[in-house]
Design goal:
Length: about 270
């Protein structure tokens, strides 16, 4: 049978999602764990398929993987949940044998930026330039694929001193979202105008706004038509809550570090 799983992972722990020999990757960890359980044969990649290939440092809340399994979900999932590290299985479904996770209807990414020094309305205006079907050659690392892509929505939300840029599209080119984010942030700083961004998108400008760091990018969700009836996986929420608590403690440490260091310097 073919199983599909929704997975979350901490991108800082991996050299990307796609299998690479001798490097830790999301696909590699999944395949190794499944092979140890006797579910799949141990091979050099290509047995576990992912909806989206994420770069080194990029995290996910809702990537999707699929593979052919000799075990049903009820037998397989407890072992995966308790064995995998930095990967959390959050949903499962038995799917058609022809299902491939890359054939998604849409993908949504979120990027998290500190709000300091950024003008939100300018960013929102600039972000709308990307909506629609365009040639994104100026905002991607080209790899031979058709550079035309359809972006259905780009939003900029204020949240607790941060700006969250959410981008939804049918598919994306390599580095496309991070280059879009870099341009929107440049508009927020006043370094680039929406008109200049439109010229870049049209291929009339060779200006390069750069690329945003991968560590603050999250693959939020992958959607399919017809929708998949995901069954929640018990146990993963507890491990994720533990990671959130660890990160909250780390955040508190740096807040105190700043407070104490600043106070010591000012005396």
């Amino acid at each position: 049978m073919r199983l599909a799983l929704t997975i979350a992972y901490d991108g800082s722990a991996f050299y990307g999602s796609a299998y690479q020999p001798r490097l830790r990757t999301v696909e590699g960890d999944l395949a190794s764990c499944l092979a140890d359980m006797g579910v799949i044969e141990r091979t050099a990649g290509g047995v576990v398929h992912l909806a989206s290939r994420t770069d080194r440092g990029v995290s996910a809340a809702g990537n999707v993987c699929a593979f052919d399994s000799s075990l049903g979900p009820e037998s397989l999932l407890p072992g995966l949940v308790h064995t995998l590290e930095d990967i959390w299985v959050t949903g499962a479904a038995v799917v058609d044998d022809r299902f491939h996770p890359r054939h998604a209807a849409s993908k949504t990414y979120r990027y998290y930026l500190p709000q300091q020094g950024l003008e939100v309305e300018s960013m929102r205006q600039a972000a709308q330039i990307f909506v629609g079907q365009h040639d994104f050659s100026a905002f991607a690392k080209l790899d031979g694929r058709n550079p035309e892509r359809t972006v259905t929505d780009v939003g900029v939300e204020q949240r607790d001193g941060l700006l969250v840029i959410e981008v939804t599209g049918t598919s994306f080119l390599w580095n496309q979202v991070r280059r879009m984010v870099a341009a929107v942030a440049a508009a927020g700083r006043g370094d680039i105008t929406p008109e200049e961004m439109a010229q870049m998108l049209a291929g009339a400008s060779c200006r390069d706004p750069g690329i945003a760091s991968p560590e603050y990018l999250l693959l939020a969700r992958v959607s399919y038509r017809p929708a998949i009836a995901w069954q929640p996986v018990s146990g993963s929420a507890r491990f994720l809550e533990r990671r959130v608590a660890d990160m909250a403690a780390r955040h508190a440490l740096f807040v105190d570090m700043h407070t104490l260091a600043t106070g010591a310097t000012s005396k």
